[in-house]
Amino acid sequence: MTEMVFGTAPVRAVEPVLPRWWRTLDKWTLGAVLGLFAVGILLGLAASVPLAEKNGLPPFYYVTRQLIFGGAAIVVMLAISMLSPPQVRRLGVLGFVAAFLALALLPVFGTDFGKGAVRWFSFGFASVQPAEFLKPGLVVLVAWFMAAAQDVGGPPGRRYSLFITLVVVGLLAAQPDFGQAALVLFIWCVIYFVSGAPVVLLVGLAGLTVLGGFGAYSGSEHFARRIDGYLASEIDPRTQIGYATNAIQEGGLFGVGVGEGTVKWQLPDAHTDFIIAVAAEEYGLVLVLAIVLLYAAIVAMSLYRLTGERDIFTRLAGTGLACAFGVQAFINMGVAVRLLPAKGMTLPFVSYGGSSVIASGIAMGMLLALTRRRPRGQFGEILARRGR
Amino acid sequence: MIRTPLRPLARVLSARERGENPDTIERENRRQRREAVSDAARGRAEIRLLLLGAAFVAGFATIGVRMAALAVSQPIEPQIASSGDAILASRADILDRNGRVLATNLLTHSLYAQPQEMIDPARVARELVVIFPDLDAARLTADFTGSRKFIWIRKKISPVQMQAVHDIGDPGLLFGPREMRLYPNGELAAHVLGGASFGREDVASAEVVGVAGVEKAFDGWLRDPANNGAPLRLTLDLTVQATLEEVLADGMKLMKAKAASAVLMHVGSGEIIAIASLPDFDPNARPVPPTTGEAGDSPLFNRAVQGVYELGSTFKVFAVAQALELGLVTPATMIDTRGPLVWGKYRINDFHDYGARLSVTDVIVQSSNIGAARIAMLIGAERQRAFMDALGFLSPTPVELAEAPGARPLLPPNWSELSTMTIAYGHGLSASPLHLATAYATLANGGHRVTPTLVLGAARPVGEAVISPANSEAMMSMLRQVVTRGTASFAEVPGYAVGGKTGTADKPKPGGGYYDEKVLATFAAVFPAHAPEYVLVLSLDEPVEDSGSVDRRTAGWTAVPVGAELIRRAAPLLGLRPTYAPVAGPGLSLARN
């Protein structure tokens, strides 16, 4: 008996980290993300060549860069997905503070790369768009405030989070970057919606958004031009939309063939905002539907897993992250098929862009961390009810 | 709402009885209430999350459907929406009276660049400079690599140049069809035709717009699609025009004149058979108007129509014709020609002293200023002015040239007695050679007014009578005598009975007064004098005939020989038969019985 106890190897009380991580992880979402990244590299081989040629670089320069950044993003994503929800919360809030400062300093140190909007910090070897990093941080912060508001004796988190969101929206609109501003506002609304917004208020907010849209239309020429381009029934074939539409039509079901596309030579943003047009032209509807399916799968899977979540913060933060990701993809692809007015927004993981892919990696890492399966308090509840 | 009490009294009492802490009951109830709230919230959130997920799936499905709809639809060739009406490049031909082509169109190509399509801008610029040496390679390279999307390189290129550009083989170099105005006869009738340039243009075509001459005057007509391309037929005769320009150019060179002009007009209809002004230009490459110097010395200046000059003694016939018409004189009436004629502070002199008296005919034949002035004094200012108006000297010529309405004769500010006298011998009133030719045609055709015209076929009524046919005949007789025994003796062309009048006008100085050594020598001729068909007005600017010991500048020595040579060559071309006085044959005589 004694030797049975003495000298035996100590048994670990908990499961090892990696197996538990793998067991609880949303493997479908992870697989979809990796699939999107692979598609992005595949399209980058086609779409980024003209840009490289224009800048006098080797043809696959941007593909190599995207591989490096994307690899880093995947590492970051996997690392963050191992965090626990409180750790995610801490990381998100700290990240938000840093990104907010960077955003506020844009007018001083930022650059517009000649595109008419100051959105980037240029570091020579790479440029960083703080708004991309701000979004996951803001989602976490808003979710934290909203969750705290539901605690007994908690702070008025909804009001605080709305205030912070509006400040961020103001900063983004001042760049001007109405697309990101609208996206941020939308995310707050989604989190508020899931956290239990009264229906009357939701209707009122929708009305306000419409009003704000009209205000921006009459107030900003930049904005009005985009909307006019959308409302014009005739597609001017010399606009970006015209080229994109033509490319989708040229591609048909199975595409014109790898490397045979022409739209990438005509559109300056073929490797970012209009990469879906390149995909449609060279690989046809098949690849486009696959991409759409991957995005839909990520969003639907994440939201489904969050329905069973009992922790309010986890649920809200996960919802915000998944929706931000899905809406960004939706807007990007909706522009290409003229469902939505032209808006510069990247396709997460597919578009070229270092800061975009790393920010997407952070967001997806947080989402994966939050959607991991974990004990949902069933035992605790059963035990707690013993007194009845 | 029924609220469960946190401390139900019954349970608290029974707990106390059992010796338990009743606070646990309250805690338990609070916890349950909180859980109930959070369960409700979770249930609501669950529904809303499912709604969100459904919305996203629906959104992505919409995108997929839109993509599929687009992908299966047929791509449409991008069409550039054209703004405004289409540019019509068609322009009618211009023909001479015999149907020979004076102006037509040639299909060429324009060359333009779209740098965004260009593969190697630097090489394209280099190769273009080889083909078009006047282009600047550095400038082209800058244009091709800059932000410009469209650059005109050449408006018109030849087929050889086009092939050379094709051989560069760059997709950024593009051609657009161009109708180009072509004047196959080069400088012939340059001032009449004027020239054309491009108006509105795009890559597919360009408007050809007339800039001067009949091209401008008939611009709307030539471009009117309703004409179905009917050509514009002018009264010019290409052969006579060529002869006239050749003789005029030779004469100008021989007489060392700085410029020359000539008008050949049909006396009955006013049709201009040939008209020229030297120096001239090539309407295929119309020079830019000069910015310095006298506009009247530019090759672009049509001296025969635009230039107004004091035309000297050629005007004397008008005073005489009017005096005859008014019955003041007959050709034999003697006129006092003693000189000088003093009027106020002015003195009128003759070139020679012609003695005390000359007949009216001899006033013309000898060209007496004093005689002409005295005849004008008989007429008076009012009647002279009316007569000059009837001859067309008071308004611009109505000829169909863009420049004609601007050529307004210079009239004396007040038509005084002195003006009357000086106008009688061709000073004090400046008119164009075309004015003079029109007036001579009026005198020659039996006295009805002539309207000069360049367009063939327009039906024109016979003009009002200015002088009677009898007086017209008398005037022609006088003009014939000027050639046979007067100042224009060099104008005798065997068989064509040339009649005419010389005019040697001192040129006015810009500041006032007249040059001594600079004259405008004019010869106004009618042939044949016995049955007038054509009138010729030929002017030489600053001629000098220096073959003799003294330089001779009078028209009789300069303009007249040139005019004679012109008539000698042109009259057969005009279809005139030479007529000779009947000669008695040997051994034949008229017998009368």
Structure description:
The complex is a heterodimer of chains A (388) and B (593). Chain A is mostly helical. Chain A has 17 helices and two strands. Chain A has helices spanning 2-5, 17-24, 27-47, 49-54, 61-81, 85-109, 130-149, 157-174, 178-194, 199-219, 221-231, 240-251, 263-266, 275-307, 312-336, 354-370, 378-384, and strands spanning 121-122, 127-128. In chain A, strands 1-2 form a two-stranded antiparallel sheet. In chain A, helix 3 runs antiparallel to helix 5 (61-81), helix 7 packs antiparallel against helix 15 (312-336) and helix 15 (312-336) packs antiparallel against helix 16. Chain A starts with a helix and ends with a helix. The model of chain A has no long low-confidence stretch (mean pLDDT 83). Chain B is α+β, with helices and mostly antiparallel strands and 593 residues long. Chain B has three domains: 9-37, no CATH class; 94-233, Penicillin-binding protein 2a (Domain 2); 239-282 and 302-573, Beta-lactamase (3-Layer(aba) Sandwich). Chain B has helices at 9-18, 23-72, 121-131, 137-145, 159-168, 190-193, 213-217, 219-223, 238-254, 316-325, 360-366, 369-379, 381-390, 417-424, 433-444, 469-485, 559-573; strands at residues 94-95, 101-113, 151-157, 173-182, 195-201, 206-212, 232-233, 259-266, 272-278, 309-310, 334-336, 341-343, 346-348, 357-359, 430-431, 499-508, 514-527, 534-541. The longest helix of chain B has 50 residues, at 23-72. Chain B is elongated. At the A-B interface, helix 9, helix 12, helix 14 and helix 15 of A face helix 2 of B.
Q: How big is the Rg of chain B?
A: 44 Å
* The CATH top-level class label of the largest domain in chain B: Alpha Beta
Helix content of chain B: 25-40%
**Shape call of chain A:** globular
Beta-strand percentage of chain B? 15-25%
Q: State the total count of DSSP E strands of chain B.
A: 18
Mean pLDDT of chain B: 85
Largest sheet of chain B: 5 strands, mixed
Strand content of chain A: under 5%
Terminal-residue CA separation of chain B: 161 Å
Oligomerization status of the protein chains: heterodimer
Q: Strand arrangement, largest sheet of chain A? A: 1-2
